[in-house]
Design a protein that fits this description.
Blueprint: E1 3-7, H1 11-22, E2 26-30, H2 38-42, E3 51-52, H3 56-61, E4 63-65, H4 71-76, H5 79-88, E5 93-95, E6 100-103, H6 108-121, E7 125-127, E8 132-137, E9 142-147, E10 152-154, E11 157-160, H7 175-182, E12 187-193, E13 197-199, E14 211-221, E15 224-235, E16 239-241, H8 243-249, E17 261-266, H9 273-286, H10 305-312, H11 325-336, E18 338-345, E19 353-358, E20 376-378, E21 386-387, H12 392-407
Parallel strand pairs: 1-2, 1-11, 2-7, 11-20
Antiparallel strand pairs: 3-6, 4-21, 5-6, 8-9, 9-10, 12-19, 13-16, 13-18, 14-15, 14-17, 15-16, 17-18
Helix pairs in contact: 1-6, 1-12, 9-11, 10-11
């Protein structure tokens, strides 16, 4: 049995503590907040999108950064095992559109309560209001941690799972990056991810509050397509948000020339350009003497109609029988390719996750143990791993946390606190 300290009481930290205790280790979980799972509590708008019930190959396909690093982690503890564990702990789950998994109650607090029950069952000691200042080592081997109040806690293994920089009000303030850096680890540049986008076009703010469903969003860098998805999006006072936009944002930093990034919305993806033109023509032929603004309302939400008229370059007062073929083509084009220029991303206060982090080449993917410091394990958002929306990021946390906790070996002796 080893003496294990887990730093961070989020998804990865709680799972690491559970897995280590299940192996028979003496585990202390340190959390600087007043409760466990503070960020978990607000995920999925308070519903907690626990994981995704897709096939394992789709798990990898939805990981944006370093998916190959996760082969062992996903094999050790996959989405089905997460679901089974939580349900066994008393939290029934349901699967919704897009194979997203939520608690039946729609309350993230039930997920946290289930994890707390598991920790209690395994005898994990939880210490709240406890901030770690530094991870202690001797000859590149873990000896314990130094707390903010000056006390030292000894341990033979430490799991670092403090989270990234997103939603700093939940305690994600980059402590883990600092501590890992002090131990020699390389921290790749961090940026907000799964975050709303700011848009240059002024007409965008006119659509504030408008939600679009069943549209296709394509992000390009110059002429190169870097992401495409189908689903929902939302217009805001600064630009765009919603599930489609959040997923696309994770690819924004893949483009070196940020000024060349655009997003294009296909408002009618079920129709080809030719089919859409025929539909518009049919509407026109049935209302030849009406004004354009009174005819095309059937094509778009009411809030979007005046913007589409402006972008098409056809006056809203123009009679249908006066509209030329070229003008109708412009209306078809802007409907199939509503283009916006991305001026930037919102900051960490609105980001769901952090992109970047501790370099995965410095971590053993089979155990999550540091290659630089013996007995140091790293899990969750701290690592340079991220995925699109849909429960995939939490699955990364569950899998890496579980693998870290279950990989800690037995030792002959275990140390005690001073």
């Amino acid at each position: 049995m080893s003496s294990v300290i887990v730093i961070g009481g989020g998804a990865a930290g709680m799972m690491a503590a559970y897995a280590a205790a299940e192996r028979g280790h003496k585990v202390v979980l340190l959390e600087k907040n007043e409760k466990l799972g503070k960020k978990l509590f607000i995920t999925g708008k308070g519903r907690c999108n626990v994981t995704n019930a897709c096939e394992k190959d789709k798990l990898f396909a939805n990981v944006v950064s370093n998916p190959k690093f996760l082969y062992s982690a996903f094999s050790d503890f996959d989405n089905m095992q997460v679901m089974e564990l939580l349900e066994r702990a008393g939290c029934p789950l349901k699967t919704e559109r897009g194979e997203r998994v939520f608690p039946v109650s729609d309350h993230s607090s039930d997920i946290i309560a289930a994890l707390e029950r598991l920790l209690r069952q395994k005898g994990v000691e939880v210490r709240l209001y406890t901030t770690v200042r530094e991870v202690l080592t001797e000859e590149e081997k873990i000896t314990g941690v130094l707390l903010a109040d000056g006390r030292c806690l000894h341990a033979e293994a430490v799991v670092l799972a403090t989270g990234g920089l997103s939603y700093p009000t939940t305690g994600s303030t980059g402590d883990g990056y600092r501590m890992a850096g002090m131990l020699g680890h390389t921290v790749k540049e961090c940026t907000p991810a799964l975050v709303p986008m700011e848009i240059e076009e002024s007409w965008c703010s006119r659509l504030q509050g408008l939600s679009l469903k069943n549209v296709t969003l394509t992000m390009t860098c110059g002429k190169k397509k870097i992401w495409q998805g189908f689903g929902e999006m939302l217009f805001t006072h600064f630009g765009i948000s919603g599930p489609l936009v959040l997923s696309a944002s994770s690819y924004y930093n893949k483009c070196k020339d940020k000024e060349a990034v655009t997003v294009t919305i296909d408002l009618k993806p079920a129709l080809t350009a030719e089919q859409l033109d025929k539909r518009i023509l049919r509407e026109f032929e049935q209302n030849p003497n009406k004004q354009l603004k009174n005819v095309i309302g059937s094509l778009y939400p009411s809030k979007l109609t005046p913007v589409m008229i402006d972008l098409s370059g056809i006056g809203g007062e123009k009679k249908i029988h006066e509209i030329t073929r070229q003008e109708r083509d412009r209306l078809t084009t802007v409907t199939k390719a509503l283009m916006m220029h991305v001026s930037g991303l919102r900051d960490y206060t609105e980001a769901i996750i952090t992109q970047g982090g501790i370099k995965v080449k410095e971590v053993n993917p089979s155990t999550m143990e540091s290659k630089l410091v013996k007995g140091l394990y790293i899990a969750g958002e701290l690592l340079d791993l991220d995925a699109v929306t849909g429960g995939f990021n939490l699955q990364i946390a569950w899998s890496t946390g579980h693998l870290a906790g279950s990989s800690i070996p037995d030792t002959v002796e275990s140390q005690t606190d001073e």
